[in-house]
Amino acid sequence: MGAPAFHVERRTGERRGQRRDVPPEESWFGAFTASPDSQTGATLPPGGPGPLDQDAPANRLLERPEKPGAGDATTLERLYRIFLSARALLAAALIATLAAASLFGVPPAPPVVVGSVLYLLLAVGMRLALRRLTPASRVAPGRLNATAWLASIGADIVCFSLLHLLSRASSFNYAALLVLPVMMAGVLTPRLQALATAAGITLLLLGAAWLAVLQGGEATSLMTQAGLAGSGLFVITVLAGELAGRLAREELTAKGSMELARQQAQLNRLVIEEMQDGVLVVDRRGCVRAANPAARHLLAPRAAHGPAPFQLRSVAAWNALVTMVERAFVEGVWPEAGRDVVLDFGAANTRTLRVRVRFTRRRGVAETEEFCVLLLEDVRSLQARMRQEKLAAMGRVSAGIAHEIRNPLAAIAQANALMAEDATTPGQRQLTQLVSDNVERLKRIVDDVMEITPGEVHEAMTIDVRAQLAADCADWLQGVAAAEPDRAAAPSLLRLELPAVPLGAAFDAQHLRRVLINLLDNARRHVGLAPGAVQVRLSAFDDTRVELCVASDGAPIAAEVERYLFEPFFSTRSRGTGLGLYICRELCERYGASIDYRQRPAGQTHRNEFIVLMRQRPWPDIGVAAAGDSGR
């Protein structure tokens, strides 16, 4: 016997909270079809890693929400399975009843036994056929087609009607069994079809009563019983249909709510993953259930840590963070501004994080914290942002002052040049040269201030960083040799390590040259004549970033100086402007790059290292190289 199938009927234009009037030709379960307005059509990637253990499944905040597949059971499918199971149980109970009657000396008629056995085989076969169907073919929100209706409701009407007609002379009343097909029709078929089914069964009951009257029965009693039974079938049909419609509307509302929740979860995940601050969800055992990329990057000394879940106690450098989490669970409160924790990765590599804690409470359990959310931020980034905000106003003021200084400075330079023409004595020439030197110094300061003044937006071009560094380092070495003859006689001061293939990045060629020259000049002032005292290394940091490292073998920078390295007008030299590294940072941020200082472990030769991370871009073999070279 063929498996039952459903015709798909989609209802459009429905909204949550609106009144839905079901047309006569629609199934009460037509509302189970998901509205197109509630479907995003987006295919979400698979979720994160599995649970950490069986006893405590990972409650991953950032896990991608799972979308129900086509094989998930709907209420229509579940009710249909229940009806088929009920038919099988009813057939078994019918056989058991006949067997019990035979034991008590009331043997049923052979046609009744044969009909009951055939109905049992039909009901069990239908239920087993539905079980063997695949999930995709087992459910189709809509209404029963003709084949499914005949195989289930139609077969019940025929079997129960025959049993009712064949057992009129016995004490068994099979008319009550007709309630099952009437209820199935009320739930699984359109209203008109369900009422037609009830009307047909009512006519059968009236016909059977009329036959009984013709055989000598009491007409009033028999016809009244048949009429009352038919009225009850109509009431059951209407009630079953209304209940089915209400279930349909509730499931549609639930599906809409789930879709909205799924979309909200996806938006939350995207927002949290793009946050600059680190987000950790930690339970009482120190297990990290969720971690965004920023948090995983802050917890690792170099590359990002693996995805959640993972144990905080598994890394010794995180012991201070574990202690802070335990303290947070014990106290149950946390300062609004947060607290600082130092992660010691060894080899003089430490990182200070500002930690803010927020708690989540379990429902029904007062004053019990189940999870805590840690908001992590690098203290250096926090301090840099605060300094940036403080210096923003000062930068605008400095730019205005520098612009006003240019005019009198030009007048001083011109007057000094006229005086130098009339200088005759060595003392006069010395004074005019002193004025000229200081005018040039002031010009450089003004130019530096104007360079970092917010103005026109510079669009990042794709350059071949490898070729750019090779040319700039060669020019720098020539300048060093011309300015310092002792350097020219010494072995090569600079050791350059470049990749074998071109490496593209988003930057401006002239600005990258200025950043590199500033870093090389700073390194040159603190190194000796040893070969390779300054190292420049270029490599791909990951799939999205390019790393430029400038290391030197000079004395390590003191901690009290390191914190002010990238601040303007801070210099350890008496004649330094203090704008070199500040300009480097401003130029890097202009093109989405970053610059930082790192002190290598004590056992290494080149302990001072400046790292520039640029956005990587694909570099073709031909066609783009000329554009990069023309920018120099």
The neighbouring-strand order within the major sheet is 5-4-3-8-7-6
| Helix-and-strand structural type | alpha+beta
Count of alpha and pi helical runs: 17
Shape: rod-shaped
The end-to-end span amounts to: 81 Å
Q: What does the main sheet amount to? A: 6 strands, antiparallel
Low-confidence regions: 1-72, 133-142, 622-632
Estimate the mean pLDDT confidence.
75
State the helical fraction.
40-55%
Radius of gyration: 42 Å
User: What amount of the residues lies in strands?
Assistant: 5-15%
Would you kindly provide a written description of the structure presented here, covering whatever features stand out?
- The protein has helices at residues 75-103, 110-131, 135-138, 146-166, 179-188, 191-214, 219-274, 293-298, 319-331, 379-422, 426-451, 465-483, 485-489, 509-524, 559-562, 580-590, 625-630; strands spanning 6-8, 142-144, 278-283, 287-291, 310-311, 339-344, 350-361, 369-378, 461-464, 494-497, 504-507, 534-540, 545-552, 594-599, 608-615.
- By secondary structure, it is an alpha+beta fold.
- The strands form 4 sheets. The protein has a 6-stranded antiparallel beta sheet with strand order 5-4-3-8-7-6.
- Strand 14 and strand 15 (608-615) form a beta hairpin.
Brief descriptors of the model:
disordered N terminus; 5-stranded mixed beta sheet; disordered C terminus; 17 helices; 632 residues; 6-stranded antiparallel beta sheet; single chain; alpha+beta; 15 strands
